[in-house]
Amino acid sequence: MTPGPPATRCRKMACEVDDREGGARVGVEGLSVAGASGVSAATLVTMAGGPGEGWSGRLCHDVAVPELRATNAVTGVPAAPWRDALAHFEALLCFETDCWDVHEAMENERPGFVLLDVRSAELFAAGHVPGSVNLPHGRINERNLASYPDDTLFVVYCAGPHCNGADKGAVRLAGLGRSVKKMIGGLEGWKDEGFALQEGA
């Protein structure tokens, strides 16, 4: 008999899976899945929808693992190496925050930042995040920031993802040597979360 491909090793649980001759064996015995002790590998494969027509994959710790070989708009560009992804997403948290975290922080008497609505005074009066201060991005300058200590953290927002006013405001603040984050989602994201707006100047 011609030897099949070598057994592969599960990176997470260090089990061995043998795909020879179209079959599979689980390298670690006595495990249970979702409390279903004694469920056979074949049964679990059936529960997972394979193997069978249109299914390819292997068994890993009694769990059917499909092969992810499809090429489409998502998979056509390879994902970044995990170290690069980690650095990227950790860095994002230094530049951005979200509506939920801002809302939770604003519940405290001292949230630790100044929330700036960088839209026009008219839009601010029509509805804004409670506790925010209106300072249109075009008016962000040293004179208008003079009352804030140098170590103040500013969080800026505008109308929403379709608006780059928050980015313009963040550029101005950073250019003045100020610490700044953007509240992603803006006013539309705030409303989508179900949070109330305040009207008036």
Key phrases:
single chain, 201 residues, alpha/beta, two-stranded antiparallel ribbon, 7 helices, 28% helix, disordered N terminus
Report on this model:
By secondary structure, this protein is α/β, with parallel strands linked by helices. The chain is 28% helix and 18% strand. It has seven helices and eleven strands. The strands form four sheets. Strands 7-11-10-8-9 form a five-stranded parallel sheet. The chain is globular and about 55 Å long.
Radius of gyration: 27 Å
Which structural class best describes the helix and strand composition? alpha/beta
Q: Note the quaternary state here.
A: single chain
Question: Total number of β-strand segments?
Answer: 11
User: Major sheet: order of its strands?
Assistant: 7-11-10-8-9
- Beta content: 15-25%
**Quick one: biggest sheet?**
5 strands, parallel
Instruction: Please state the overall shape, judged from the principal axes of the Cα atoms.
Output: globular
Outline of the structure:
This protein has 201 residues and is an alpha/beta fold. Helix content is 28%, strand content 18%. Strand 10 (153-157), helix 6 and strand 11 form a beta-alpha-beta unit.
Task: Please specify the SSE layout and strand pairing.
Blueprint: E1 8-9, E2 16-17, E3 32-33, E4 36-37, H1 41-47, E5 57-60, E6 63-66, H2 82-95, E7 96-98, H3 99-106, E8 114-117, H4 121-126, E9 133-134, H5 142-145, E10 153-157, H6 165-175, E11 179-184, H7 186-192
Parallel strand pairs: 7-11, 8-9, 8-10, 10-11
Antiparallel strand pairs: 1-2, 3-4, 5-6
